[in-house]
Design a protein that fits this description.
The protein has a six-stranded parallel beta sheet with strand order 2-1-3-4-5-11, with helices on both faces. The chain has a six-stranded mixed beta sheet with strand order 7-6-8-9-10-12, with helices on both faces. With 377 residues, it is an alpha/beta fold.
């Protein structure tokens, strides 16, 4: 059986260096760490996970507890986490909290019972869960959502600014009665995005009435029901900012079912870019988040926390970018303009024959566009 001594001999380093690489210490010179990993590959070395866990009182696993595995936003985010974890010698266990505080609690209990090396969590709103992790000495990083009343490493995007950009764009596009569909009041992202929506309206000298705001569940059905409620009002909106991708899908489906033409009768901007947003008709305007970078930043903070448990907690906030497409502009210019706030170039219209913007509500997996009403704008 290959031992740590064999790896050290082949890599021409000390056994303590091999041990530090195995334990994910960032203090190892990158060239030495690369030699150690190559030697482990060449020798097909596999450390005894049980023995290492007993010695270190931790496994080499990270629990990544996300709020909705069906949301494509998390796909790239988890990839960013995993890439950094692998570089640091850790493996990732993916847990679907499913926006269910009780289910999230069970995963936190499991992470503590299995003595995992750390936890990255998109919290559903219970600060007591994160307190439970930190009080047990578990390295933890919150991602995507700001936990209330807890001093913990956190990675976010500037939700207020992103929502403000989206709403200001709808104002500039000539829409007069702009609504907002956001998530549950207990979740920081929902609150921050409606705050940005209201800030943009006030900056434009407009009121921000509560009757134009709907609090939903960050799911497709919730977006559909919220949009239906807005359209049934005595004065329905002529534009809507929707605070996440799945609710945007539901809201647009509702508009189609009600024969409301996008963007002529109702403009739409969503939050979170959707992989097929530029392929549907009309193409969908969105606030794009740097999801892969979010994951990498969270994993880097967790690695630092494992190496230095006493360090002061920090918050990393990344910028969003507004992707202006057809769903929010009543009359697009003849040529594509410049991106907003550093976003990639504005998406061009796609060839005739692409499917109209629509979907059906799927219970699992990412929703996909389906051909429908192709003759409509």
């Amino acid at each position: 059986m290959t031992t740590i001594y064999d790896v050290a001999r082949l890599a021409q380093v000390s056994t303590s260096t091999v041990s530090r690489v195995l334990n994910g210490h960032s203090s190892v010179d990158p060239d030495l760490a690369a030699r150690v990993r190559q030697a482990m590959l060449d020798l097909d070395y596999r450390p005894n996970a049980v023995a290492r866990s007993l010695r270190r009182q931790r496994t080499s696993l990270w629990a990544v507890i996300i709020s909705d595995i069906g949301n494509p936003f998390f796909t790239s985010l988890v990839r960013g986490i995993e890439d950094v974890a692998q570089e640091a010698g850790f493996s990732v266990v993916l847990c679907n909290g499913d926006e269910d505080p009780d289910k999230e609690t069970r995963y936190v209990t499991a992470a503590l019972a299995e003595r995992m090396a750390g936890v990255i969590i998109s919290p559903s709103g219970r600060p007591a869960l994160i307190n439970r992790l930190t009080e047990a000495g578990m390295p933890v990083v919150a991602i995507d959502r700001q936990p209330r009343g807890v001093a913990v490493d956190t990675v976010l995007v500037d939700n207020v600014h992103g929502a403000e950009m989206a709403t200001a764009h709808l104002v500039d596009s000539g829409y007069r009665r702009i609504a907002c569909i956001t998530g549950p009041r207990r979740i920081s992202t929902a609150v921050q995005r409606v705050r940005g929506f209201q800030r943009a309206l006030r900056a434009a000298g407009r009121p921000a009435p509560e009757d134009l705001v709907r609090y939903a569940d960050f799911r497709e059905d919730g977006g559909y029901q919220a949009m239906s409620s807005l359209l049934s009002a005595a004065e329905p909106p002529d534009a809507v900012f929707v605070a996440n991708n799945l609710m945007t899908v539901g809201a647009v489906e509702c508009l189609l079912d009600r024969d409301v033409v996008v963007p002529t009768e109702c403009g739409v901007v969503g939050f979170d870019d959707i992989p097929w947003a530029h392929l549907v008709r009309p193409s969908l305007s969105t606030v794009a988040q740097p999801t892969y970078d979010l994951g990498r930043a969270a994993a880097s903070l967790l690695t630092e926390r494992i190496t230095n448990p006493a360090k002061t907690s920090s918050t990393v906030t990344l910028r969003t970018a507004l992707q202006i497409r057809e769903s929010s502009v009543r009359s697009l210019p003849a040529t594509n303009g410049q991106p907003v706030e550093g976003a990639p170039a504005r998406s061009a219209g796609v060839e005739d024959g692409c499917p109209a913007i629509t979907t059906r509500r799927h219970r699992t997996g990412a929703p996909a566009p389906r051909a429908r009403r192709a003759s409509r704008p």
